[in-house]
Amino acid sequence: MARIEEITVKNYRVLQDITLKDIKPFSVFLGPNGSGKTTFFDVIGFLSDCLTTNVRKALEKRGRFPEVISRDCQSQEIEIIIKYRESKSQKSKSPLITYTVAIGLQNSSPIVSRESLRWKSEPDAEPFDFLKFEYGAGEVISGENPEINDKKISYRMDDPSSLAIKTIGQLSDNPRVASLRRFIEGWFLSYFIPDQARQLATVGAMEHLSREGDNIANVVQFLADEHPQVLDKILKQLTHRVPQLERVESEPTIDGRLALLFKDAPFSRPFLAKFSSDGTLKLLAYLILLNDPNPPQLLCIEEPENGLHHRLLEPLNEELVAYSQRAQVFVSTHSPFFVNTIKDAKNLWIFQRDNNGYSTVTRADQIPDAKHFIESKAGLGDLWSEGYLRGLPY
């Protein structure tokens, strides 16, 4: 399982200069409205979009470069630095790799101004760049284990707004670059919208849930066809938590679409998803995500508490922790009820804004005023509500 261990973001909206170190497989991001949590998630989505399309299109989706770069910023570059390992287990630990990408302007058009991959091939060796590009031109050291003195191969990108790892990572002789490309391609941001899930979908099984959840009936159909044991597990979890719910299924309609149907135990006839509650649909979507037979390597979920009864948050937290044994998961939240379910303060990050208007982020166990309470096993959500979890004074 690939895993991010550190992220630095510079000049991306309110994230003018933040660094998160020693990120755990399960990480929760807490803070008031406007503190930068959603922007942090958008950085993940932005990098994913850059790989899927290019920097220019990813910026256009967000209002173009002047709207994304931090206000009153002296620099004219957005920079994202990710430190990750391709695998980490008790038996083996792959080398730490640093990916850096900077986005600037050239003739008023956004381009990738700098891009590099850096590692140490041996624990005691000096770190070096085995991929290094500037303004669309650069060099790569190929091979399974690039060495500093190995031959460098030069490339020039046709489109300087495209990431080098997108092109170079499709070549079989660059497995380390290809591994990063696949890792980023496997990131998934869930922005589940219950009203989207209520729509009738086109017929056809689909393996993975979409970001908004509009294909939830297709995924139920896929699980019924290909992974019935997984679907049975999901539905048992769902019916255990939603009173009177007996089963969920998908069914083709006369006009060639697919309907998601819910059946309550006291009644003989099922009802359409459009008559189901937001909470029931969200819980079903989360259970589908967390039981995915082929999970994304990084799953980001915004405010899972919305629409859910607070008693459902503890079992949801347990499932998120279990999921983090298979893949990394980031969650943003406002809910003290959800935060109270977090057992380890190292899993909790606090976002807030400083006096200059930029975001700061602090891991909960590193907040001096909260250490005594954390050590005494006080609820982290209660500490948040009472104002103890503050990285910097407001």
From TrEMBL:
Transmembrane domains' residue ranges: none
Domain of life: Bacteria
Pfam family, any one: AAA_21
Domain ATPase AAA-type core as annotated: residue spans: 26-340
InterPro entries the record matches: ATPase_AAA_core (IPR003959), P-loop_NTPase (IPR027417), RecF-like (IPR014555)
Protein name, UniProt field: AAA family ATPase
